[in-house]
Automatic annotation (TrEMBL):
Residues spanning the membrane: none
Protein name (database record): Epimerase
Gene3D superfamilies per the UniProt record, alphabetical: NAD(P)-binding Rossmann-like Domain
Origin organism lineage: Bacteria, Bacillati, Bacillota, Erysipelotrichia, Erysipelotrichales
Residues covered by the NAD-dependent epimerase/dehydratase domain: 4-74
Pfam families for this protein: Epimerase (PF01370)
Matches recorded under SUPFAM superfamilies: NAD(P)-binding Rossmann-fold domains
Length: 302
């Protein structure tokens, strides 16, 4: 039985990851700050620790050995530098982001981000520099731990019923409630992945022979215009009303900026994952159900 450690497994795709690992019959331990008590389908071991305190890390893990460690809590290079020297593992899987690509535009393959060209610094997390932090996560691994068995999973926007960021939900709410918002990429087609499939893919990687960065995304892309059009159908708005609302609500002189602004149209190439045997779903298979769920959640709050 494989012994698995998950750093951050109590919400969003981390919770789905834990459930998938339990289905595989693994011995699973989650390590968190202990702020949230979550029920899982089977017994899960728990460790309370402070990710940003090296002494806490040493006390929690220095005497343990794991087959696979999942890290969903790495946001900058210091998170890696204070953690990995004190972990004993056969495989380490860290979630980064497609935000590492610069520019994130056109068809994107793993090789389009050259980690070797990043000027490496050991820096603490900066919430205002998410993409830069994720680049430093990968650069830390490249510079300090490149000989180890490590997979860096690059996710696009992760969405789902359990998305605590509520970024997609804000677009739906703005249309339903006629709330003005500035959107500068209304028609750009972007990749997404469901929180459920993100968890499944991470669990899948526990049994593959692979090392390095890997893209993950649902097949086919979606624009914010596509999302709003689906919401308009739920509102029973005719096409003329929909286009009029879009023209009135999403202008450049509005102070409230949309969550996915500045992201241009792109396509995430997932051929490496497919070659390993994982076939991602099409976004068309689940996006309508998600939008319907969020639509009625917003309506019931009115």
């Amino acid at each position: 039985m494989k012994k698995i450690l998950v750093l951050g497994g109590t919400r969003f795709f981390g919770k789905h990851l834990v459930e998938e690992l339990l289905k595989l019959g693994y011995d699973v331990t989650i390590a968190t700050r202990g702020l949230k008590n979550v029920h899982f389908s089977k017994k899960v071991n728990r460790i309370i620790f402070d990710r940003y305190n090296e002494k806490s890390i040493i006390n929690a893990f220095s005497n343990e050995v794991y087959d696979v460690v999942y890290d969903n809590l790495a946001y900058s290079s210091n998170d890696i530098e204070i953690l990995l020297p004190h972990l004993k593992y056969s495989k380490y899987i860290v979630t980064t982001s497609t935000a590492v690509y610069d520019p994130l535009e056109g068809e994107i393959q793993e090789e389009d981000f050259d980690i070797s060209k990043i000027v490496y610094k050991n820096e603490l997390r900066d919430k205002n520099r998410y993409a830069y932090g994720k680049r430093l996560v990968e650069a830390s691994i490249y510079n300090k731990f490149h000989n180890e068995n490590i997979i860096m999973v690059r996710f696009p926007f992760v969405i789902g019923k359990d998305d605590y960021t509520k970024r997609l939900e804000k677009y739906i709410e703005s249309y339903i409630k006629n709330q003005k918002m500035y959107i500068n990429n209304l028609y750009d087609k972007m990749n997404f992945i469901s929180s459920l499939e993100a968890g499944k893919f991470l669990a899948f990687l526990s049994n593959v022979n692979y090392k390095g960065p890997i893209n993950a995304a649902s097949n086919r892309q979606l624009s914010i215009y596509d999302v709003l059009e689906k919401v308009s159908h739920l509102e029973n708005d005719i096409e003329e009303i929909f286009k009029d609302k879009v023209n009135k609500l999403y202008k450049s002189n509005i102070l409230l900026h949309a969550p996915y602004n500045d992201t241009k149209g792109y396509i995430i190439n997932t051929d490496k994952a497919k070659d390993l045997g994982f076939n991602f779903s099409s976004i068309d298979e689940w996006i309508d159900d998600l939008i319907l769920y969020l639509f009625w959640r917003i309506k019931n709050e009115e």
